[in-house]
Amino acid sequence: MTRGPDPLADGPGTDPLRSRARRPLASHQTPGLVCAHHHLYSTLARGMPAPPRTPRGFREILELVWWRLDRALTLDILAASARLGALEALERGCTALIDHHESPESIEGSLTVIAEACAEVGIRVSCAYGVTDRHGPDGARRGLAENDRFLAEGGRGMVGVHAAFTCRDETLEAAADLARRHGVGVHVHVAEGPDDADAASRLAPLARPDWLLVHGVHLADDHGLAGTIVHNPRSNMNNGVGYARPIRFANPVALGTDGIGADMLEEFRLAYVRQREDEVTATPLDAWSWLATGYDLFPEALDDRVSWSHDPAEAWHLAFTPGVRPLTVEVSGELVYADGAPTRVDAAEIRAHAAEAARRLHRRLEEMP
């Protein structure tokens, strides 16, 4: 029999979201939520033209959908996409995004565009450009240079790598070296699909505890990689790559969305039921702890406050209560969302501008060979 909500399961001081807060919380409040892996550039993908043919596996999903989309991006389209993605994160109580970006035709300045869009809306962001050799050595060089420029100018971020299977060993080593020089980690997709199954052996000599290892579906239990695993259950199910079963890893585990919005309560619910499907004795507490790991990656979010429409805002309640929404959101003491609207920006204007940018993006995709 399925266990129902248990209000006693999260006693005082045991809830990892609540117990780590830096200021007192009411029972209907949490710190701002953290999305540990996002792709803000994909916000305008909704309704995009169909690919040239139906993808028959994960590699073709990348080639026919996402690698075409990132090539079609311009900086102005990216700005509209990032503003809308940031707005939607705020509307769901997510105040900190760890973003992973690629726009091979518009690399230079792209991370600043994303950072400025998030700052305009009023949320926090960590940026990284996904270095890859898919576009030749010059493309990899330019990606490394964009990470270097952004970090050197004081941007909050990491060094991004697309995935080991799209990079030469020399590029992986250059990215790891750049991260070390800036005192940050590497943000990289790892073993998401079978094409990247040997990622652990290539990355193990380079990886450090401050790395983000995104997906990990095809990693062995004893993979030997240092870093935090970022679990993206909705994306993994959508791409048909399998279940990562993150409970098996000794690494810390965080939750991300892989670009499918930033509704972290919804991602928490899905992470729980996916785990429950795999193991019927699972409880919401594992997925709730994965959500809390976001604060190790973005501790500033502990200074934020979200007041929710459900009381109490605790794991056993929220796992079984769909439709919970923020009533107010404070970021570093500033009220940035109240009465169903952001306070810094005009939500209608952002959505209208995004709709126009989406039309231009989709036209570019239709014209792409």
Task: Explain what you see.
The chain has 369 residues and is an alpha/beta fold. The chain has one domain (28-367): Metal-dependent hydrolases (TIM Barrel). It is 39% helix and 15% strand. The chain has helices at residues 16-19, 58-72, 75-91, 110-121, 136-152, 169-182, 199-203, 233-239, 264-278, 284-297, 315-318, 347-367, and strands at 29-30, 33-38, 94-99, 124-126, 130-131, 159-163, 186-190, 212-215, 228-231, 253-255, 305-308, 326-331, 334-338, 341-342. The strands form 3 sheets. Strands 5-6-7-8-9-10 form a 6-stranded parallel sheet. It has a 5-stranded antiparallel sheet with strand order 1-11-12-13-14, with helices on one face. Strand 13 (334-338) and strand 14 form a beta hairpin. Helix 5 runs parallel beside helix 6 and helix 9 (264-278) packs across helix 10. The radius of gyration is 20 Å and the shape is globular.
A few lines on this structure:
With about 375 residues, this protein is α/β, with parallel strands linked by helices. The protein has helices spanning about 15-20, 60-70, 75-90, 110-120, 135-150, 170-180, 200-205, 235-240, 265-280, 285-295, 315-320, 345-365, and strands spanning about 30, 35-40, 95-100, 125, 130, 160-165, 185-190, 210-215, 230, 255, 305-310, 325-330, 335-340, 340. The protein has one domain: TIM Barrel (Alpha-Beta Barrel), CATH 3.20.20.140.
